[in-house]
Amino acid sequence: MSRAMLTRMLLARSEIIDGTKIRQFRTENAKSDRSKCQICGDKIDQDEVRISRLDEDRGIDRWHHVHCFIVAAPDLDFHTRVENLQGFYRLSAMDQWELIDAMEHRHECFDEEEEDDDEDDG
């Protein structure tokens, strides 16, 4: 059994990882260009990597651009590694690497947000 397969099996059984209800989150390449990011409101292009947080009340996925999700992750109650996302191991190796890299450099996203806010004020 491969490591990825074993990880997926363990995640499927696990309810909470690092304080995150892991079943609420998943990632995939967008199947079409019809979904909109729940944070910025822009459309998510077909084949672009996207991340969902399940709206448990309505039973539907709320999709996000990777950058938008990473900035909002703490507010969305996502406190674990992106490798724990359902669907992560179905992404291409390049998409996996880019997702990991984006999460590891998320502090730069916060710095960019602050710079944008400063420019708006000035």
Task: Write up this protein.
- The protein has 122 residues and is an alpha+beta fold.
- 38% of the residues lie in helices and 18% in strands.
- The protein has helices at 3-13, 66-72, 93-104, 106-121; strands at 16-17, 20-21, 25-29, 49-55, 60-65.
- Strands 3-4-5 form a three-stranded antiparallel sheet.
- It is globular.
Percent of residues in β-strands: 15-25%
How many distinct beta strands?
Answer: 5
Structural class, from secondary structure content? alpha+beta
Percent of residues in helices comes to 25-40%
Order of helices and strands: HEEEEEHHH
Rg: 15 Å
Mean pLDDT: 82
Give the CA-based shape: globular
C-alpha end-to-end distance: 57 Å
Largest sheet: 3 strands, antiparallel
Lateral strand order in the biggest sheet: 3-4-5
Number of discrete helical segments = 4
Low-confidence stretches: none
